[in-house]
Structure formats: structure tokens, C-alpha cells
From TrEMBL:
Belongs to the isocitrate and isopropylmalate dehydrogenases family. LeuB type 1 subfamily. GO terms for molecular function: 3-isopropylmalate dehydrogenase activity. Substrate binds at R98, R108, R137, D226. Homodimer. Its EC number is 1.1.1.85. It comes from Fluctibacter halophilus. This is 3-isopropylmalate dehydrogenase. Binds 1 Mg(2+) or Mn(2+) ion per subunit. The gene is leuB. The record marks Y144, K194 as: Important for catalysis. Mg(2+) binds at D226, D250, D254. Transmembrane segments: none annotated. Catalyzes the oxidation of 3-carboxy-2-hydroxy-4-methylpentanoate (3-isopropylmalate) to 3-carboxy-4-methyl-2-oxopentanoate. The product decarboxylates to 4-methyl-2 oxopentanoate. Gene3D superfamilies: Isopropylmalate Dehydrogenase. SMART domains: Iso_dh.
Amino acid sequence: MSTYNIAVLPGDGIGPEVMAEAHKVLDAIATRFGLTLTLNTFDVGGCAIDKHGHALPPATLAGCEQADAILFGSIGGPKWDSLPLEQRPERAALLTLRSHFDLFSNLRPARIYPDLAHLSPLREDIARRGMDVVVVRELTSGIYFGQPKGLEGEGEQQYAFDTMRYSRAEIRRIAISAFEAARKRRGKVTSVDKANVLVCSRLWREVTEEVAKDYPDVTLEHIYIDNATMQLLKSPTDFDVLLCSNLFGDIISDECAMITGSMGLLPSASINGSGFGLFEPAGGSAPDIAGQGIANPIAQILSASMLLRYSLNEVDAADAIDKAVVQTLSDGVLTGELLSQEQRHHAHSTAQVGDYICQLIRQAQ
Ligand code: NAD
Ligand code: IPM
Ligand code: MN
């Protein structure tokens, strides 16, 4: 019997609500596949600031270090927005964890399934043709982490600065992640940049071209970020793997999530060179809907599936979750944000969607 230790960090806002459903799903999966999954829960984010005075308490970091993988919810919210940047949950906890474990490779798969095209806000004929992309986002460098960063001067002369910075080695390793992903998919990498303006993007293109030479079976195209955001809406089938720097990948993955129907559908895997990973929804703590039991738990549940697939190599268990999720969506068991205003009275709650997915997993036994 395989035994795994998973650090569970629910966080703030809808984090604990959707995490409760992922927890149920992992319990159902453990029973069906005979896995022993030990889930240890730790405080992180704004709630950890309130309780322990720090967004990433030492016990939480230690729990993550001892785990086989981390399942993360989401953090942040209006209550902690006025803190200095370095104390805010986003930087003090999430960016610190990404950097601490060197989780440079962020995979964000987004898909419109043919019979779920009606969930997409795209024009019907475009949505019906589908979309199946994975955003491969560099996660531990670029403008998020580049130094110097700061605020200087006073009055109208005051200025702020961030540094976008990439080394060849950093570009090379994320490009390799993208080409490896493309090789297992439809064999196309579209590298997203702003090489008409940014020096970083010029180096990005150069190194990406070098990596492409080792992958003759994969096609490489380059596209400017502004055009990419537009082409994704116009012709999403043109894309397979989108290779992005940290900031561009952040922006484009929210767009991809919405193209599939909701921010609440997009999972993500953040992985280091040893296969250790943190798995989290691409979206945030959604303060506008927190506490109402209406958040979509699917991004969190699919993040648990990615954890099983990428960090634990439990591929059958991951497939079972993915299949149950698609079935749930096809059966019309949907949270409110996936429904039109007129249909919203048919909405299912966060817990009802989680329960339905668990039931499908158990029935398939
Ligand atoms: P958000 O992703 O939380 O919300 C954007 C929109 O998407 C909102 O309308 C929200 O209701 C909706 N949404 C998101 N997840 C949903 C779900 N599961 N079901 C239904 N609807 C969902 O982005 P925001 O409002 O810009 O940020 C809120 C807070 O979350 C901020 O503090 C931000 O920094 C933080 N954040 C955290 C993470 C993370 O922890 N990984 C990611 C993104 C944003
Ligand atoms: C994401 C989030 C984070 C990011 C924030 C919360 C720091 O938006 O994971 O997409 O910008 O990376
Ligand atoms: Mn984001």
C-alpha cells in the first residue's frame, strides 16, 4: 500500500471552502485506490498573520518540508491589503514558498470540452471548435523577484521601480519544461513575449530558439503578449503549449481560465527540478463570494488531481478525478458562476459539487 504525506494549506477567503471538497475527494480516492494519504493541515496567509503574526509561520514551512507534496488553497483579501508588500500574504507566504522550493515550472492546463462549449463566454462557433492549452509559466524569477525593487524620492518626484531580469539558465529550464510538455501533447510551443520592446524578451527568444534545436519534433512559434491575448479569443485552437515569463503567464492564465467558463475551473502545478510540487487553483481567495458556500471547488479538486499525477505518480487516481469532474460538468452539476442569470436558481453549492464528484468516484469502483 502506498503511503503519502500531503501538506494542506487552505488559506483565506474561499480557500477553506474549496479545500474541504478537495479533502473529501482525496478521501474517496484513497479508499478506491488503496492509498494511505496523510493530510496535515497548516495555517497560511492572512489567517496566519491574525493567529501567529506571520503569513508563513515556521510550523507551516516545516510541515511543507516534511511533505511529499503541498496542496494550497488561496490567500489574501481586503483585510491585509494595506500591509507593506513584503508582509502581505501573497509575497510573505506564496511567493516565499515558490522561491524556497525553487518551484520554477508552473503548469496551468485549460480546456473547453466539446460538450461543455456552452460554458465558455466565447462566440458559439469559436467555442464549439474547443480549446486545449497548457500555460507553462516561469514562476520564480522575472519582474516578480528581480532586484532592485523599491520606492525613492518624495512628492511628485517620488518614483517606484521593479526589475525584470532573466538569466539564460532560468529561461532555458522553463523552455525545456514547455518543450517536454509539447512533446507529450500536440507538438507545438508558442512562446509569448514582448521582444519588440523588452531586452529580457530578446534573450528569451534567443534561448528558446536554442532549446528548440533539441526538439526537432516540436514546432516553435513566437507571439507578442498583446497579440496573444487577442488571438486566444479569436482562434484558441491555434495554441497547444503557451510558454510565458512570470508576469505574462499570470495574465494569460486568467484569460485561459475564463475562456473555459470560470476562474474556478483552472488548476495549477508548480514543480521544481526534483518533481516536488505545490498545487493550487490559478484563481485567488475571491473575497466577493467567500463565506457563501457558492465557490466552484473544481479548480481545487483538479489541483489535487495534478498533485497525484505529477508529484506522486498516481496516474490512475488522477485520471479518475479528471473523469469525474468532466462527468459532473456534463451532468449540469454547476456552481452559480457557470450559469446565466436566468438559470442561476439551478445552481449547486460548493459542497453539492464536491459530493457529486465523490459519489462518481465511489460508483466507478
Ligand atoms: P480572484 O481570482 O480571487 O477573483 C477573481 C474573480 O473570479 C472574482 O469575481 C471571483 O469571485 C471569481 N472566482 C475566483 N475563484 C472562483 C471560484 N473558485 N468559484 C467561483 N468564482 C471564482 O482574484 P482577485 O479578486 O483579483 O484577488 C482576490 C485576492 O486573492 C487578492 O488578495 C489576490 O492577491 C489573491 N490571490 C491569491 C491567489 C493565490 O493564493 N494563489 C491567486 C490569485 C489572487
Ligand atoms: C497566481 C496569483 C499570484 C501570482 C499572486 C497571488 C501573487 O495571481 O498564482 O496567479 O501573481 O502569481
Ligand atoms: Mn494570477
